[in-house]
Amino acid sequence: MNPRLAIVGGGPAGMMAAIRAAEALGGQAVVLFDKNDRLGRKIYLTGKGRCNLTNRRAWEEFAPHIHPNQGFLKNAFRAFSNEDLIRFFETDLRVPTVTLQGQRVYPASLVAGDVAHALERRVRELGVDIRYRSSVGSLAELHDFDAVIIATGGKSYPVTGSTGDGYRLAEEAGHTVTPVFPSETALLPKDYDPGLPGLEMKNVGLTLYIDRQEVMHEQGDFNFTDDGLESGIAYHLSRRAVWALYNGQRVDIVLDLKPALTEEQLRDRLLRNSQPTDVSSARQNLSNPRSSSGLKNLPLHQAHARQLAGNSAEKYLERQSLLPKALIGPFLRANPDLTVDNLPERLKRWPLRISDYKGYERAVVTAGGVSLKEIVPKTMASRLRPGLYFCGEVLDLDGDTGGYNLQIAFSTGSLAGASAATYLLRSV
Question: Per-residue pLDDT for 84 more than 60?
């Protein structure tokens, strides 16, 4: 009997593994098991339905976005890089691509379904035996196969079938599974202001503090949603923030609404933009004349205080164009002791105590997984069990938002499929 390969999981990593293995072995030697009635269900949700295939950055710029061990991915990336992936989609799958802001690569149609359909079509063209609606409960069920690739994904978006089955299969084979937790997920502030959800923040700064120590800073865009700080740079912080909360540590995020300006530059701007109107009540309208926070208050020029007199805090902030109009209310509620003097500092430092995070039902990625110490990075083979391979999100390997996670899936899937095929061919 010819040797056969079982692949468990029909997501991006599993389909890529099936394609590479079938190209070497012939499709009849490859059996792909998936829980769903179609392959690649999670792909439809990626990139907000547009499918951010990869990121075009060179390895030196790509690698820092990989966690927790960028070096583990290096061999798989070199064997099937982001540029290789783009060529594969455009040439083999006939799916044109487009590169947008931040070197993010999408299908030119910006329709995620086009990617899933093209991959599934290629798997079928190669003659792979696809077993839809098929769950694998244990490795013992696959005793008729000569090699197995586990590509079941993590726990994110469980409605797509990602329920952590691969961790159980890995442990059955004797592998260590590091603690798993949601990543690229919403971070919920304590006493979350109801006026914040729905606001899109552009070109702001976020600094993450764990147990009051600064650990990470990002600048760019994110959204306030019903679930908290989400998307963009908030996702970049979420991995470390969730892990800290998971371990009972204090987590704070400080929002910088004016990252391009220093406090002194903001103070100078207030002076330049002031208009001579009323002369008596500005500081009263901006609440107490001195901050109760203990922070240093730098006095403004006396003429500036007169120019602000008589305007409400809301009107003053709106006139200065310091904040989006919809953000003024939440900002004032967060700063009840606001004064003209401490306004620049408050614009630069809006503290948000993070109390919770959204779970796997909304998390884009699962962090943690099968220990990389027990996987050969040059082949994706198990160090513990011959003929067993792992790829994709089931591994303790994940990336930032921006196309990095799908590239991990495609690179490790390609390497696992090719390596498993080589293993089987040598065993004939």
Answer: yes
